[in-house]
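Chapter review: from sequence to fold.
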Amino acid sequence: MEFVKNLASLLKVKTIVTLVVMGVFAVLALKGTITADNAMIVISMVVSFYFGTQHEKKA
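The C-alpha cell string follows.
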C-alpha cells in the first residue's frame, strides 16, 4: 500500500516534466548536439528547482 502511495505521488506533472527535461538533455549530450557541460548546467537547474519546491511544500 505504501508503494502505491509513493508511486502515485511520483506521477505528478512537475515530476514528469522534470524527468522529461533531464532525459532530453541527457540524450542531446550523448548525441553530441550540445556539450555535456551545458546539459549538466540545465539539468542541475531543473533538479534544484524541483527539489527546492518539494522542500518548500513540506515546510
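Two observations follow directly from the output. The mean pLDDT is 80. The CA atoms of residues 49 and 55 lie 10 Å apart.
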